Amino acid sequence: MKDLNIVFAGFGGQGVLFAGKVTAYAGLLADKEISWLPSYGPEMRGGTANCSVCISDRPIGSPLVTNPNVLVAMNLPSLDKFVDAVEPGGVIILDSALIDKKVERTDVSVFYIPSSALAEKEEVRGLSNMILLGKLFSQVCTSGDWAFCTDEILDAAIQKCIPPRKADMLGVNRKAIALGAQQ
Amino acid sequence: MKVLMKGNEALAQAAISAGCRHFFGYPITPQTELAAYMSKQMPKIGGTYLQAESEIAAINMVLGASAAGIRAMTSSSSPGISLKGEGISYMAGSDLPAVIINVQRGGPGLGGIQPSQADYWQATKALGHGDFQILVFAPSTVQEMVDLVSKAFDKADEYRMPAMILADGMLGQMMEPVSLPEEGEKKLPEKPWAASGHQGKRTHNIINSLYLTPDKLEALVRERYARYETVKEKEQLCEEYLTDDADLILVAYGASSRVVRSAVNKAREKGLKAGLIRPITLWPFPVNALQKAASHAKAMLAVEMSMGQMVDDVRLAINCKLPVHFYGRTGGMIPTPAQVLEQIEKLI
Description:
The complex is a heterodimer of chains A (183) and B (348). Chain A has 6 helices and 6 strands. With 183 residues, chain A is of the alpha/beta class. Chain A has a single domain, classed as Pyruvate-ferredoxin oxidoreductase, PFOR, domain III (Pyruvate-ferredoxin Oxidoreductase, domain 3). Chain A has a 6-stranded mixed β-sheet, with helices on both faces. In chain A, helix 2 links the parallel strand 4 and strand 5. Chain A starts with a strand and ends with a helix. Chain B has 2 domains: 190 residues, Rossmann fold (3-Layer(aba) Sandwich); 109 residues, Rossmann fold. In chain B, the strands form 3 sheets. A 7-stranded mixed β-sheet of chain B has the order 3-2-4-5-7-6-12, with helices on both faces. In chain B, strands 9-11-10-13-14 form a 5-stranded mixed β-sheet, with helices on both faces. Chain B is globular, with a radius of gyration of 20 Å. The chains are: A alpha/beta (183), B alpha/beta (348).
């Protein structure tokens, strides 16, 4: 696989850290070198939150991703902050229901997924992050140059990341991921 | 089976596995997950988790527990470590082992809460008053945090001196896969010096750092420094990466060494002969490896998340035999591989 550096970014509470954690766990289960680094501090309370996830065949150097191959953006401030940093040839996956703006760059692939609206409509409320994650895995993580795992590994990663006391949430998370993959 | 764990939690679990049964702390970002983990786990294994009224109280509780022969630990972040300095000096003066964790953040003063390496001088030279050293370990991955906590407890007991894990906010907050040590009761060394009750079978032990007779105090300090010489001889640790043919040796520890490793890889792709020496012990400083490298390299470059602290020890280690350059970011800023590569290109 080619080294994959992802930034997940959005408002605190949208689940960007969790989406990153599932991705990191999938990398672990696929026997890759991985790191997960959150932004931490006052910006997490109501402001923007983000995390860097690195997946590679080689040991990870800096876990801080300054030029991601893939940006998952869940709100406009996050898109504005990272859009120019994405590597040429990279991928941007964004919630087009919350981000009313087109990406002007022509050297990246952009996927507009109305994930927060879909989450409401399809009764997977609050799982906009998992819809975007579904798209990330179908588009990037399981096919193409950056592919490092399979749908089965993703499913195992979700099971690892959902604590036993919330086991009843597994079904809706799977539904949201499948929904994202179809977009 | 590897698990995904935050550095702070891995430090806590590793301490428990190493036989630490008393943890005394006080909350501060970015090390709080460590104390939170201890507060959940210690009661389950019959250990003690205590949130003290201050950092000063916490370190003195560590002193007391250690004096009783128990493996004890405290953790904090930069401003909190300054407060612990007095207690650490007392522990060094009482020949007491313990592990102190510093998950560094930007300073001086309250500074910021983002990662920093600006406490190098404090850890290796001036953690408190008086003639003393402590062991200082600098992990660069979550796995190494686990491995070094265990080593820190063992070496602290072996040499009867405090040991510090000098981490930073990046390592504390990030998650990486780790293999945790086997659970189970670890065999801990005997501590015949401990004040743990003599039951009428021996004379009582006294643990103290007050010696009002100058010649007695000098003799004690000299005895301690003889021990430090043994530590310097036997305990230097570092990793050498692509140094054999390197023209430029970069020296970096902890979080910044990860950035430097990426930059060295990029330099090599461009045909630039850069290598990395990564100190794993900061005290004792890996002087031997640096001297060896100085015999064939042309220059050195220290990279730190500070205004330049370890760079002094690099110059001392090689007696200024080569030009030693410095690149640093501070205040919570993390250098990028591209910025370090730019420095390498300037120097080769």
